[in-house]
Design brief:
Chain A is mainly alpha-helical. Helix content of chain A is about 70%, strand content about 0%. In chain A, helix 3 runs parallel beside helix 7. The two termini of chain A are about 25 Å apart. Classes of the chains: A mainly alpha, B alpha/beta. Chains A and B meet through helix 5, helix 11, helix 12 and helix 18 of A and helix 1, strand 4, helix 5 and helix 10 of B.
């Protein structure tokens, strides 16, 4: 185990380098972005009415939120929902990443872009697609299986806790997939080779070496999936409410929808979410404290090796194909089919004469659609770029600089994930509506909102990779006379690239479809696609919305493909 | 609404005119955000469709609708009473936030809280399934998730039927709620605001509203689509104060949260 290095003393030169200002400014921006909405949430949960003229302290919000007959069941449901989804998503994502990245499974490279598709679908559309597949009353898949197998009752019921876990998980798999691809990519194969040479078989090597090297990434992926599920809203609303399974976010949503809206109780519930997430972050920090253990990227040239699966590679191929058909193709086909129809109708011969291009033709001549598309494209690419720049600096401070108290930054970078989008939106209105620089009502306030919301994802992507980079590379650079900035730009950043690219793609996609904050902050001129989509959905133009979904997938896949081209060696194809 | 209040508290009014459900208009008024003004155009509206600081812009009707593939011609509902029949058990959907139904039934259909509660309790015994969002309800009804929807919006149906969707809807009775127009006290463009509010409330503006597929509030302007019910239980301004009470009743009846 030559690369598991003996810890060395910290880099004495660090503290003296004036270029350190750059990451420190990054840290300052992060603190500003993360702390203000958090403060507003906190203060709001203790006040008697929303945004009052004067502050009246009260505990009634907490009483209402946590002393009700539902407190316990909500807690248990949330925990099951989040744990189940995190595990299922993680398993899918990891197996997909390993098969496509590190094995000789046939045709694996074409599955890579496909695996990202479920991420692009807005949550509303995805939930609807699954309802149309798995509803016990009319779900296409249920009807078809009953017919095929001669069953008396439908095999699946989407309106259940397992249904919620399934629908949410399949939407999240791309996130786990992208993060695991980055980890597999930047792994030194010499350790695996040593294991193989010592007589270990493929499975033993995977279990005893590959898997253990991945522990920090596994930890951060599981954590992010867990918290992301706690905070998610679409599935609990569209599937949980009919099933009468309530979790924290549906409770928050219901609090906002009461007469009058109970923002205080919503805030108090959010603080609970925050605490639950804080426990997760604490556990994760403890588990990865001894970062040195996981440093696998050293000065030696390497290229991750491929496992020869032998005849098993066809099993791998089988898994990829079944996953592709079941998770990606089916829901997409439901929407694709619907986008040519005047209303949702089951696929079949009798619906054929209703097919037309009307929905697309309508969108083509619909000015607001093009404006929103433009806004969304600008915002998502900018958000991804700014967020990744910021978080790679902050991740460097946290994991490499050894500045005292830098773990606080790590926690702060995680905090925005626990603030529900609607709370974030409200606090940003208060902050910027009377701000001296008139950014309110423009897309710039949306940029601030998106960057804040997606810092946690960027941070996980950046820190997972930075942990794996051995200090000796940067030491070598600074020993050769490079300044901090030169080292960072020429050594650290390129080594981080696989992780950063994965983070960029993820943030670009999720900010393209961001809804819950935009709904409060987007105005006429700064309207984004997700808002237009929702408005049209509410007006009942559901099949036009399906057409927008199809166009979104096409647009985002082109953006991602273009980004691959621009960033050169992208770390996806070996 | 949350946005308007938050913006105002943040120290700025950005909008000129507010046009949203009346309960939110009155909330904004209670927060001191709206102008006390009676538009000259409001003279054309009956009492109940105008107030000291607002004029009705349009109406939305809560009605029952059904899937024509799942409901036989002779079993189509004529009034809400028909839904008490055992054949509807397990075949009904509704929206979880539509407390207006029990309120309007209590005040205007039965003129008794007890009778209304009793009626909706019997409906609850039919195992109603609740889905979020009226648009979602209409889609699910078309797809066949349920045979009938109890709290759908009437304006969701004419266009679907025209396109051939297997649905129909009941106009014999329904509950109407009001969307209102009001002007912000600190409107950045007060004159434009007034002009717009007057135009939208005029017959001409209401005709445009109708052409856009909404149900105009002006008694002289006919809606383009068949969206008005024959017997209508209007939610009045006075009723808005009782929303919390009926919200609680509605949730208790259906064991909602």
């Amino acid at each position: 185990m030559t690369t598991v290095a003996i810890p060395r003393a910290g880099r004495a030169s660090v503290a003296l380098d004036p270029a350190l200002l750059i990451p420190l400014v990054g840290a300052g921006v992060l603190v500003y972005l993360a702390v203000l909405p958090l403060l507003m949430l906190f203060v709001g949960s203790f006040q008697a009415e929303v945004a009052p003229r004067e502050f009246v302290y009260t505990l009634k919000n907490y009483h209402a939120a946590y002393a009700s007959e539902y407190t316990y069941s909500t807690f248990v449901n949330s925990l099951i929902f989040a744990t189940g989804s995190a595990l299922l998503t993680f398993i899918f994502g990891t197996v997909l990443a390993w098969l496509t990245e590190r094995t000789n499974t046939p045709l694996r490279s074409i599955f890579v872009p496909i695996a990202v598709v479920p991420l692009i679908l807005p949550g509303v559309l995805e939930s609807i697609a699954w309802i149309f597949l798995l509803s016990p009353k009319f779900g296409y898949l249920n009807v078809w299986l009953m017919h095929l197998l001669g069953l008396q009752s439908p095999p699946f019921n989407v309106f259940s806790l397992p249904g919620m876990i399934w629908v949410h998980s399949v939407g999240q798999v791309p996130l786990a997939f992208l993060m695991m691809v980055a980890a597999f990519k930047s792994m030194d194969p010499s350790l695996e080779e040593s294991a193989m040479m010592s007589g270990a078989n493929t499975w033993q090597t995977f279990r005893r070496v590959t898997f253990r090297l991945l522990i920090p990434t596994v930890g951060s992926v599981l954590l992010i999936l867990f918290v992301r599920t706690l905070e998610s809203f679409e599935t609990p609303a569209l599937i949980g409410i009919p099933a009468r399974i309530y979790v924290y976010t549906s409770e928050i949503y219901l609090a906002f929808n009461e007469y009058p809206p109970d923002y205080g109780r919503g805030g108090a519930l959010s603080v609970g979410l925050l605490l639950l997430s804080a426990v997760g972050v604490w556990l994760y920090t403890r588990a990865t404290k001894e970062g040195k253990k996981f440093q696998t990227v050293t000065g030696k040239a390497f290229r991750p090796r491929q496992f020869d699966l032998g005849p098993w590679r066809w099993l791998g191929f089988g898994f990829l194909s079944v996953y592709f058909v079941l998770v990606v193709l089916l829901p997409f086909l439901v929407l694709f089919w619907a986008s040519f129809l005047p209303y949702f109708a089951a696929p079949g011969w009798d619906a054929l004469d209703k097919l037309s291009l009307d929905n697309y033709r309508y969108l083509g001549g619909f000015r607001p659609f093009w404006d929103a598309m433009k806004n969304s494209l600008i915002l998502s690419t900018l958000t991804a770029t700014v967020a990744m720049m910021l978080t790679s600096l902050v991740a460097w401070i946290v994991y490499k600089s050894r500045l005292p108290g830098s773990w606080v930054l790590d926690f702060l970078a995680f905090v925005p994930i626990t603030i529900p989008g609607i709370v974030m939106g409200m606090s940003l209105i208060l902050l910027y509506v009377a701000f001296p620089i008139p950014i309110y009502g423009t897309i710039w306030v949306l940029l601030i909102a998106y960057v804040t919301r997606y810092i946690p994802y960027g941070m996980r992507a950046a820190s997972g990779s930075i942990l794996q980079i051995h200090g000796e590379l940067e030491e070598a650079a600074s020993a050769s006379g490079a300044s901090w900035w030169q080292t960072f730009k020429r050594v650290t950043l390129p080594l981080l690239r696989p992780g950063l690219v994965a983070g960029w793609i993820y943030i670009c996609i999720v900010s393209f479809r961001e809804f819950s904050t935009s709904v409060l902050l987007a105005t006429g001129e700064s309207r984004v696609l997700s808002i237009l989509l929702f408005t049209m959905f509410e007006q009942g133009q559901v099949t036009v919305v399906a057409a927008i979904g199809v166009l979104m997938i096409a647009t985002l896949l082109s953006v991602v493909a273009l980004f691959y081209k621009l960033t050169g060696r992208i770390g996806i194809q070996t | 609404m949350a946005r308007a209040v938050t913006e105002a508290r943040g120290g700025k009014t950005l909008a000129d005119v507010l046009q949203i459900p009346l309960e939110n208009v009155t909330q904004a008024y209670d927060q001191g955000l709206l102008l006390d003004i009676k538009l000259p155009e409001s003279a054309g509206y009956p009492e109940g469709l105008k107030g000291a600081f607002w004029t009705a812009s349009d109406l939305q009707y809560f009605i029952a609708a059904w899937n024509t593939n799942l409901v036989k011609k002779d079993e189509e509902p004529k009034t809400y009473d028909d839904f008490l029949h055992p054949r509807w058990k397990g075949r009904l959907i509704a929206e979880p936030r539509d407390l207006e139904m029990v309120l309007a039934f209590a005040k205007y259909r039965f003129k008794s809280d007890e009778k209304a509660i009793d009626f909706w309790k019997k409906i609850a015994a039919q195992n109603v399934e609740f889905h979020k969002g009226h648009s979602q309800l209409a889609e699910l009804l078309v797809a066949g998730q349920a045979a009938a929807c109890l709290t759908c919006y009437s304006h969701h149906y004419p266009s679907r039927i025209r396109k051939g969707a297997p649905v129909n809807y009941m106009l014999s009775e329904g509950v109407a709620s009001i969307n209102g127009t009001a002007i912000f006290k600190n409107a950045p463009h007060p004159n434009t605001a007034l002009l717009f509010a007057r135009w939208v409330s005029s017959e001409e503006g209401q005709k445009v509203m109708s052409a856009g597929g909404r149900t105009p509030a002006h008694p002289k302007v006919e809606p383009k689509e068949k969206t008005r019910t024959e017997k209508t239980y209007f939610i009045t301004v006075a009723d808005l104060k009782e929303f919390p009470k009926y919200d609680k009743i509605w949730k208790e009846i259906f064991r909602l949260r």
